[in-house]
Amino acid sequence: MSMHPKGPLPRKQQQVQVDLKQADTIKCKECGNYLWIQSFVLKKLSALVSPTGQETMIPVQVFSCGNCGKIAEGMLDESEEEKKPDFKLDI
Q: Rounded to two decimals, what is the model's pTM?
């Protein structure tokens, strides 16, 4: 480790080579589409449980199907999936 007047120099991160041909492509279980859109689900946190003591809106990033709008499996709890309205994006 080499020394620098302000402390040790940070080590360079070693880059790992990944062959994406070995990775599974995730498709929408609803319509079979392979393209996803970055979306957000907004959660409202009650003032009773909020660390600030004030009601808070929290954005949670998810991916939704670019064709039918369904949120990718595993991105929300089962209970959230049941609550969300059934809609279709017209793009």
A: 0.59
